[in-house]
Amino acid sequence: MTKNYFKLKKRHTALYCLVTGLLFSLNTQAQSWQWGKSGGSFDDVQNNEEITSVVTDAEGNNYLLATVGVNGLQIDGVNKEAYDDKDYAIASFTCNGVYRWSKIIGGEGNDRIQRLQTDAEGNIYAVGKISRTSEAYFGGETDFDLVLPSTSSTQDTEKQNLFLVKYSPEGTLLWIRFPQPENISFVDALANSHSMDFQVDPEGNSYWLCLVPPGVYGGEYNNETEGNNMLIFKYDSEGNFTGAHPIDFNTSGSYPYLKMVHNPTSGNYYIAGSLPITVTPPTINGTAVENTMFIAGFNNTGDFIWKHENNNDEVGQINDICLDNSGNIYVTGKTNSDDTMAGGFIGPDNNSNGQYPVLIKFNGSGDIQWVKNTENSAGYPATAVTINGSEVAIAGYENGIQWGDYTYETEDNRGSDAYFTRFNKENGDIIAMHKVTSVFGAFDYGTTLTADSYGNYYLGGRFDAELYVGDDTLTENAQGWDFFLAKYGSNNCDCELPTPSFGYAPQGENTGVIDFTYTGSTTYDSISWNFGNGDTSTEESPIYTYSEGGTYNVCVTVTNSCGSEQYCTDVEPTLLNDSFSKTGVDIYPNPVTDVFTITTEKELNYTIYTTLGSKILSGITTGKQTTINTGNLASGWYLLILTSNSGSSKTIKLIKE
After folding, report:
1. Does residue 497 or residue 213 have the better pLDDT?
2. What are phi and psi of 599, to 5 degrees?
3. Rounded to an integer, what distance in angstroms lies between the CA atom of residue 276 and that of residue 253?
4. Residue 445, class by beta-carbon neighbours within 10 Å (0-12 exposed, 13-18 middle, 19+ buried)?
5. Closest Cα to residue 461, out of 40, 34, 20, 70?
6. Which residue would you say has higher pLDDT here, 74 or 634?
7. I want to staple 44 with a disulfide (CB 3.0 to 4.6 A). Which of 20, 476, 480, 627 is the partner?
8. How far is CA 604 from CA 304, 551, 582, 620, 656, in A?
9. Backbone phi, psi, residue 580, to 5°
């Protein structure tokens, strides 16, 4: 069974990047800083007033998440009511920078919201942990959307503080969910329950990484393991709890900084993070993390696949992670010279200690594809990464930095400037570097980055005096920092992008030859195909021959003066020399009553999953015939996945009567 997760609607943004990225190429119009927006209070907020997440929808509207104070709070000149020392704002602007709406979320105490995500319809999702020591508020544009009551710490009611919330593109609160049991104790809610990160796929399914104590979650999943456990909670687009499973990542006491991405095609999860010296090392696959930066892959039921660490216990840091539509992984942060990971250097091989911003590309198996470092020890890390069609870009802040041939010189007492750098996604070649200018001596920080369907970039962060973005001058309210959002790109928001699509059919039986037929709009200037294995074509309707069987995510990209649009779907060519053709695999009976048989001449791995992705059983075929007993399975249908030693796989719908 193949899900066409990448069958995109017009201007539909992909949901792979932690700072939501896109499947589209950059637009072809002249690019520059277009506009800037700011917000904040008069307060000197702990951890600063800054943007921590930005996403865009199919129409180019953007949505930001920012930490904010209380007194004198405003967003783009619109006065807002906040509730306690530090709250969170969700605000939306059009592609042209016009204010749309905003919400303030907070309670009395330490609130934390991880990030924003969007689905194919432009709905907005957020997860976090909100203080319930007194009333907690989900504010609307002018009134409250929701007020959460509080009870005393001695009563085990109304302590649920982990939440998943969904808003419409217009800012209407659609639903909010609390996975914790209704009788969770004050201590377990306050000290032992934590929202870590989450992802939403184009269909609106949420995958939420949480650290929680034993209890019944979502009203049905019983976590019986002692201690605090890392679980993935799953919800559908309507807010229905659809299951949970542990992930092979365990931590005790304090926990490291983590970011997670989810691949909706394979179902795999990738978790990257940094380990401060004061934090107890977590264990992955039963082995403790020993150094400061790590990344690990897990399958769709949370089982361990692979892990990498650096070899430095002081400097290394991963701040962000994202995926492209081919399942490649990009992480950014900083590293030391001569640092290594996955068998190769991730710091410059120059024997000169320092702090070097870094961008690393892995494939889905965890193999490094390329690494890029700054030419100098820049001191500050890269903070965010996003995909924009054929580009990958990182954000950060600097007082003197060199990426390739692009340089900003060090100046005494200048402070720091927010910037972002663009790279070729395939080979890591540096395309350009851009920064936002400000008052000399000001300390400004780029903290998040995303792109829209027109190829524009949105850089978010914080500033402490004045910031100059195109024709806009942003002025900080009072003490501390205010947040800013700056658009870099073109004035192309009202453009009409082309609409791509294609069909395909095999040419002959088991030949590996596929006829691709372009069926989208023809009002494009250029067309490009990616056949899912690195090969490309610029023909309108190419014929392509695959040398190996398997599943390939094939994409066609069409471009006009407004930008680029991409359509992708999975293609499964078959060949006579395919490992499954050689083995002559047969499954019978199907539907099955109790026992079914796999016949094959070669060894295969088999795994049975429920439709929700829970693994039922697995094993290896023995001899020419292997019988599997399903007597303990409920009636319904399941997924049987067969994998050969060469790595090719076959998915079979198994029906249990």
Report:
1. 213
2. -105, 130
3. 13
4. buried
5. 40
6. 74
7. 480
8. 20, 17, 12, 6, 22
9. -80, -30
